[in-house]
Predict the 3D structure of the following.
Amino acid sequence: MSTTTTESNITAPTLFLDASGERYAYRRFGGGPGHPLLFLQHFTGTLDNWDPAVTDPLAATREVILFDNAGIGRSSGEVPKTIAGMAKHALTFLDGLGLKACDVLGYSLGGMVALQMAQDRPSTFRRIILVGTAPRGGEDIMHLEKPSLARHFRDPALRGYAILRKIFFAPTESSQAAGEAFVGRLAQRQNDLDRPSGPDVAANQITAFREWERFTGDRFADLRSIRHPALVVNGVRDEMIPVSNSYRLVENLPNAVLLVYPDAGHGSLFQFHDSFVSQAAAFLASGQETGPGTSQ
Amino acid sequence: MSTTTTESNITAPTLFLDASGERYAYRRFGGGPGHPLLFLQHFTGTLDNWDPAVTDPLAATREVILFDNAGIGRSSGEVPKTIAGMAKHALTFLDGLGLKACDVLGYSLGGMVALQMAQDRPSTFRRIILVGTAPRGGEDIMHLEKPSLARHFRDPALRGYAILRKIFFAPTESSQAAGEAFVGRLAQRQNDLDRPSGPDVAANQITAFREWERFTGDRFADLRSIRHPALVVNGVRDEMIPVSNSYRLVENLPNAVLLVYPDAGHGSLFQFHDSFVSQAAAFLASGQETGPGTSQ
């Protein structure tokens, strides 16, 4: 096992895996009786964007594996312009690790990649956690040009992590305070940092979002084949990927529980990290392995 | 304290309280460190319709109080034709008990009564659990005449509790099996039973549903004043009060968490009773007493 002795994303060393001609950056730490949990990251996010308040308590009872997809952070290659391309890299990475099955926490863009992986190779995942994400054919996915988001991207005062407080949290005192705490937790990691994503990363990922919004035929029908136990989580005030997308996920995935937090935006898992970790751990530890019965 | 020594709705004696010219039937059992929890019942339901798999584990750490509103079971009086009328009776009952503040679990019709009570006298409740219910102005509330429900009401083979399996559970093998288990649990109580509700009860309650669907002015605005911590629960396949009503609740209540179960209809709390009890108990035990901040 390549498990490291450190148990926090503040200090876990970045590791590298060579597979199919690419070099993937990742971190792997923690351990315990739970199945390994793969973390798939949001738009432009790197290994350094994972909140230790989420990764570390989950790592207390299982290995967690944080992953830079191709072209992100210190991973080689081009950022794919489709979710399918990102799913392919993630499967190559898991194959390279020799991990036959794991749990997954897909956040935002990462949730879409997790859904695509579950369709492409269902045996990859045991249980699926989807936070702040959308199915193919979802609505209003990452339209950074809309006024409620564009005003933050245009604000020169918002540099580095500071913009995350505005776009991941609701415009209330309580949510903004949670956002400030979140940014503070990210800043705790001082060494062995990823290269922040530039405009080229953003452009390709936005192209992938636009492609993911398109659908043909029966909208959301592809979700019905994903019979894994799933936990879908969102903030009710998510401006980046509205909560309606989470509604459509649980209405069409055959075995998905929905959890929606109040007073929270896209970063609900960081704002309510204690509750989220507790819900996620209980979900991952649950013995129920099978989906519900078929319609009569 | 009038707490009884039995800890189950299978055996708890029915009690009676005289207040403001009415006699209210109720059961009160259990105990522990938690706040008392008032149960407000569904359409035509009596004290005997509360699932011991839900009431009894909750009674292990708090008193639970099951209540027959006016004209239901062995309570005197007329069944009100408005939710507001039902809320008035429930407040009179709590006043008669001398209970200044409690938690509440309002299910279906009972959830609407809980919402009305929270508006009429906010201090009544500390925390609010709303299952399978709808806000004023909600959509498709208890339209028993629609084909998906009417076919069960027309079926002469469905007598007594048997119809509940059809209308409270989803048309899947797994959900129907859970429905059968639920009906079996209700049937465990053999003595000291309430009088089942007749067509007059149903007619007045349906009148109240039709009135509750109406709204004037800003739809759902009345919810924004209900700042209690709330847990909203539903089955994703609820035909009696569709899950969209739960979406509207958490989008407008300032401090409400949403939990939606897969493969479940109106009776999600009975189908997933272990999970529901665990979620409800954790919610009720949480220390957070205040709502989120105001918008900036």
